[in-house]
Amino acid sequence: MRDPFDGELLTQYESVYVLLEELGKLKAKLDKKQRNVKIWRRLSNVVLSVGTGARINKIATEKIRVQVDKLRIRISSVLETVEFAVEREEDEVATILATQEIKKIVDGLTDKIKEVGQHAAMFSGLIALGRLVFLKHIRTLPSNSVS
C-alpha cells in the first residue's frame, strides 16, 4: 500500500501552508493600516471640533471688539462735550445744555456697556459649552478601539 501523505498531497499542503503564512503577514499589515486609519479619523474629528471652537472664539472676539470700538467713540463724544462745557464755563446756558447732552450720552453709554457685557457673557457661555461638548466627545470614544 502506498503512503497517502507523500508526493502530490504533501506538495499541495506545503504550498497552501506557504500561502497561509503570506496571508497572515498581509493581514497583519492591513490590521496596522486599519489602526492608523482609526487614529487619523479620531484625530481629524478632534481637529474639526477644535477648529469649530476656534472659529466661534474668533467671531465672538470680533463682535466684542466692534462693540468696544463703538464705546470708545461714545466716550470720545462725552469728552468733547465736557471740553465744550469747560470752555464755555461763563455761559450758563451753554453749560446747562452741555450737561444735559452729557447725561444723554452717559445714559446711552451705560446701555451700550450693559449690552457688551451681555454679549461677552453669552459668548463666554458658548465657549464653555463648546469645551464641554468637546470633552464629552473625547470621553465617549472607546478606549480599546485604537489598540
From TrEMBL:
<keyword id="KW-0812">Transmembrane</keyword>
<dbReference type="InterPro" id="IPR007749">
    <property type="entry name" value="DUF677"/>
</dbReference>
<dbReference type="Pfam" id="PF05055">
    <property type="entry name" value="DUF677"/>
</dbReference>
<comment type="similarity">
    <text>Belongs to the UPF0496 family.</text>
</comment>
<protein>
    <submittedName>
        <fullName>Uncharacterized protein</fullName>
    </submittedName>
</protein>
<dbReference type="GO" id="GO:0016020">
    <property type="term" value="C:membrane"/>
</dbReference>
<keyword id="KW-0472">Membrane</keyword>
<keyword id="KW-1133">Transmembrane helix</keyword>
